[in-house]
Design goal:
Metallo-beta-lactamase, Chain A, four-stranded mixed β-sheet
């Protein structure tokens, strides 16, 4: 658990991240990580902000993969907190369809056993391997500015999933990048800005980053890995240095 900047805190160790955005005493949760975060980690992180569950106004998902929706249904059911996701990921969030995987994705040669084992053990410990579908989700579209604390602006960057989105919170000079890029590859432990190793269409995910070229944000906050504090343009440059999938 850690404070990124005043008004933004991270829940998790860096392997599976959840973020809390506070504005005027109210909180938006960005992504819902692992189910096990709900009972211990989330209350403690809210308390560190001087807040409680009663101050949470929304959970906004960058996308609806299992390691991002963890406690979403529980907080919706028990606390009546609305869950929001891009319209192209609503059926995935409800469990009506399964995630797509690019067959051109990382093969066995890209895996290092120890980092992968570390991730699997962590995921088991925090309940990230079991997914509970979200029975009711609200949706948003590309370009929307959401009426939740932090007023995040949505930019659709498909590829990792059809509705994969990033959330720009200009008031905090931060962009919640989800899995549009990561700063830690959970398969092999490599660090620094890079495409996430899983996804529906890795080449499309790479090309979709073009949509972010005009965006300025100092703090790039991924779903997996440590915060990148050297600015979004530098993070995008690092990803591009690694090359487009399919051409490496």
């Amino acid at each position: 658990m850690m404070e990124i900047v005043p008004g933004i805190r991270r829940l998790g160790t860096g392997l599976i991240n959840v973020y809390l955005v506070e504005e005027a005493g109210s909180v938006t949760i960005v992504d819902a990580g692992a189910a096990g975060y709900y009972s211990r980690d989330l209350p403690a992180e809210l308390a560190a902000m001087g807040r409680t569950f009663a101050d949470v106004r929304a959970v906004v998902l960058t996308h609806a993969h299992s390691d991002h929706i963890g406690f979403a249904e529980r907080i919706r059911r028990e606390r009546q907190v609305p869950i929001r996701v891009h319209e192209a990921n609503a059926s995935l969030a409800r469990g009506e369809v399964k995630p797509q995987r690019d067959p051109a994705g990382a093969g066995l040669r890209a895996i290092r056993p120890l980092p992968l084992l570390r991730f699997i053990i962590y995921a088991m410990r925090v309940g990230a391997l079991k997914t509970t579908p979200i029975l009711e989700v609200g949706t948003f579209g590309d370009g929307a500015t959401l009426d939740v604390p932090g007023s995040p602006r949505v930019l659709l960057v498909p590829g990792h999933s059809a509705g994969n989105s990033v959330l720009l919170v200009s008031s905090r000079d931060a962009i919640f990048i989800g899995d549009a890029l990561s700063t830690r590859n959970v398969l092999n432990g490599s660090t620094g800005p890079q495409l996430a190793p899983f996804g529906a269409d890795l080449a499309q995910a790479f090309d979709s980053l073009e949509r972010l070229n005009a965006i300025e944000a100092r703090y790039v906050l991924p779903g997996h890995g440590e915060p990148w504090t050297e600015g979004l343009p530098a993070a995008l440059a690092r990803v591009r240095e690694r090359g487009r999938p399919g051409t490496r």
